[in-house]
Amino acid sequence: MNITGAELFVNILKKEKVDKIFAYPGGNITDILDELYKQNDVDVILPRHEQALSHSADGYARATGKVGVCLVTSGPGATNLVTGIATANFDSVPMVCFTGQVPTNLIGNDAFQEVDIVGITRHICKYAVTVRKREELATVIKKAFFIARNGKPGVVLVDIPKDIQMELGSDEYPESIEIRSYKPKTSVHIGQVKRAIDILKNAERPVFLIGGGVNISGANEEMRILAEKTGIPVITTIMGKGAIPTSHPLYVGNIGIHGSFASNTAISKSDVIFSIGTRFNDRITGKISEFAKNATIIHVDIDPASISRNIVVDVPIVADAKIAIQALIEKCEKLDTDIWLKEIDGFKKEHPLTMRSCGMTPQKIIDSINRNFDDVIVTTDVGQNQLWTTQYLELNENKKLITSGGLGTMGFGFPSAIGAKIGFPNRDVVCISGDGGVQMNIQELATAVAYEIPVILCIFNNGYLGNVRQMQEILYDKHYSTVCLKYRKGCDCTTARNEPNCNKCQSTYTPDFIKLAESYGAKGIRVTREEEIDSAFAEARKNKKTPTIIEFIIEREENVLPMVQTGKPLSHMIIEK
């Protein structure tokens, strides 16, 4: 039977079991939107900006494990997806993004709202393609979902010209697809596993270094079993946090430039690092030439390009994290790590991870979330708010963290929380953001109100772009350049550079987040004292139909510590302010 490309598109969504699509309208996708209008199986979510739309699809995918699906028009609609595509792809999130395109006969003619979105995005996604013929549409989309899901997950972009959406053609859709050039390896090389185990047997100070690959593969339970069976302590990257429960006695903490003293010290003193699902990027290694100089390194990753790219490893194992861990569970034995674990416990006691400030600190706010939410998804924006969250948030099988790790995208937190809540409407979803990042996609309050999405948006308001301000305080002699969000033209400092005397700034903050929430039809609560924290969360949880903003007024110059300066080894930590 012959149907239009737009009809085939909607049929394919149903066959791929897509039940939510995040879409923003425009001229070159009107035919697809008309077909979506005629059916009831796929919910169409209309955010208020295409970038936020992509972050919502991302949050939905991370929360549910399904493929996130986007649909936008050509030109600016497509280019507004770029940051969201890079964000999701960096963190290995399965997404398929569909963009409209001008008719094929106009491509290359500088037509209205024409951009080469494939050329723009091909280096920030797994695969990008423009459909050139109607008979190729079904195969291209099948390939897109296969590539997004399989191997190392990621983003695929499919650009569909308007004439192909309108053209008649076959309604057939392949049940499966074979891509000769794409055959991701998931099985594990048993010989390499045995080599790794032999090395572990002789280790005195071994550690597991766990990245986001373990969470992506759903190997959390297996990772806990492996840690307990071997007795090896577990250190995580920010993206790997939650691989085992943070309350587990073998869990040490996060590694990296804002990792705990115990974690960074344990890595530096280890003699064997067994890494699973991490890229060894600069945020966790510090100075590469000084990273774990005396350690033998074993590295499991599904992506062979990630192995020995930054840190040269001794035993490479290309495999899916879950399959590799299952193989290790079968063959590993208990190691004598008691002395090593006591030494690590000493590191924790020497410099415990805690904020010593009085009053209402970010740690106390996050501790309240830990106490009051038993089944919760927490999303973050990027900046100090993210780092405090990854330091103090407790995670287990019922508490999940969603954050932008690889790209570090401000504006990610709130729309990703909306996507997560759409995926799990019966779970609590809390977003932790800063007063800077939240304003990058604050318009999504309208989306949350329109769709009755009761996420709780926590804004840590210190009146600064705090992460950069902290660097300027420590490394640039308090030259607070373009970071004060309370700046007014009439400030004493007289320039937008905001010299240290601007610390005394008493200007009114813009916007008033409480009034802004109310103007959207949401609820707003301002918290200025520690005693109000628990009651604010209790009040927010009563709000079942609209989002709630809780604005926490925190100390303006609160820092995230420990901190390792860029280019310094992990052992060179700034512990106290």
TrEMBL record:
Q: Which residues form the Thiamine pyrophosphate enzyme TPP-binding domain?
A: 381-551
Which InterPro entries does the UniProt entry name for this protein? Answer: Acetolactate_synth_lsu, AHAS_TPP, DHS-like_NAD/FAD-binding_dom, THDP-binding, Thiamin_PyroP_enz_cen_dom, Thiamin_PyroP_enz_TPP-bd_dom, TPP-bd_CS, TPP_enz
Cite the NCBIfam families for this sequence: acolac_lg
Native organism: Candidatus Fimicola merdigallinarum
What protein am I looking at?
A: Acetolactate synthase
Q: Which cofactor does it need?
A: thiamine diphosphate; Mg(2+)
The UniProt entry, under PANTHER family, shows: ACETOLACTATE SYNTHASE CATALYTIC SUBUNIT, MITOCHONDRIAL (PTHR18968:SF13), THIAMINE PYROPHOSPHATE ENZYMES (PTHR18968)
What is one GO cellular-component annotation here?
acetolactate synthase complex
- Domain Thiamine pyrophosphate enzyme N-terminal TPP-binding: start-end pairs: 4-119
Tell me the gene name: ilvB
Gene3D superfamilies, alphabetically? 3.40.50.970, TPP-binding domain (3.40.50.1220)
Residue ranges of domain Thiamine pyrophosphate enzyme central in the record = 193-328
Give the note describing cofactor binding and stoichiometry.
Binds 1 thiamine pyrophosphate per subunit.
Q: Which UniProt keywords apply?
A: Amino-acid biosynthesis, Branched-chain amino acid biosynthesis, Magnesium, Metal-binding, Thiamine pyrophosphate, Transferase
- Lineage of the species this protein comes from: Bacteria, Bacillati, Bacillota, Clostridia, Lachnospirales
SUPFAM superfamilies reported in the protein's UniProt record: DHS-like NAD/FAD-binding domain (SSF52467), Thiamin diphosphate-binding fold (THDP-binding) (SSF52518)
For this entry, list what GO says about its biological process. Answer: isoleucine biosynthetic process; L-valine biosynthetic process
Establish whether keyword Hydrolase is in the entry.
Answer: no
Q: Which GO terms describe its molecular function?
A: acetolactate synthase activity; flavin adenine dinucleotide binding; magnesium ion binding; thiamine pyrophosphate binding
Q: Which Pfam families match?
A: TPP_enzyme_C (PF02775), TPP_enzyme_M (PF00205), TPP_enzyme_N (PF02776)
